[in-house]
Amino acid sequence: MNKPQSAISVFNPDLTDCPAVARRIDFVDHKAEVPVHSHRKGQLILTLYGAVTCTADNEIWIVPPHFGVWIPGGVSHSAKATWNAQLIYLFVEPGAAALPEQCCTLSLSPFVREIIARLACERADYAKETHAARLARVTLDELVVMPRQKFNLPVSTHPKIHTMASALVSQPDDRSTLGEWAKRLALSERTMSRLLTRETGLTFGRWRQQLHLIVALRELASGKSVQNVAAELGYDSVNAFITMFKKSVGSTPAQYFAQRRTTPP
């Protein structure tokens, strides 16, 4: 039995100079881990089902269903997809659209999702003045007006903050206090607090809450129950987890995914 390939091994977007090309990726057929890489074209990662977590620009980005994360060209990035993830990669030629110069998460309208999915059916070397070229133009025109969402977690390159962040990302149920982390890193609690705020723009409590939101969105999108996710994040009760989730996104997990429900093929 052949081992699954990495998702980046099946298509090189820089071999075409078309304004926008799209490819559909089913992670049943590919490795969940996408190694660090970069390309000339900018990339929008759109989820059809499941979720993917990206690391780029010293930040971690979650891409739940019906959202997309935008990564400008030349930015090194990696990704980890849930086992059931179905994605579309949209690659955009530099200068083809007035898209952000920094990584961001975009909330995508049903029309934009559908037209990107339609573009994924076209060849990567389509000619000018063809139907595919017109699809690409409409896609880019619509994409630039999509609203941004905050499904990202700042992760500093500062060695002490990076050490703490790496530990909590791998073990998000760790309930150590800021004072306990400061002691482990040979800092005073006050210095640790100032350093974290300076490096990430967030207090320790807000940073960890954002981490929990990102992990929760990814795990819930993979099909795990609210009860299991709450336990994996170290919450004393399901209600406490739901309260955090609702405070972060404005709805309960059930409401959030019901509003964005997608059916696997």
From TrEMBL:
GO MF: DNA-binding transcription factor activity; sequence-specific DNA binding
Keyword Secreted tagged: no
SMART domains in the record: HTH_ARAC (SM00342)
Highest taxon, organism lineage: Bacteria
InterPro entries: Homeodomain-like_sf, HTH_AraC, RmlC-like_jellyroll, RmlC_Cupin_sf, Tscrpt_reg_AraC-type_HTH
Classification via Pfam families: HTH_18
Domain (HTH araC/xylS-type): residue spans on this chain: 162-259
Keyword Transcription in annotation: yes
Assigned keywords, A-Z: DNA-binding, Repressor, Transcription, Transcription regulation
Name recorded for this polypeptide: Helix-turn-helix transcriptional regulator
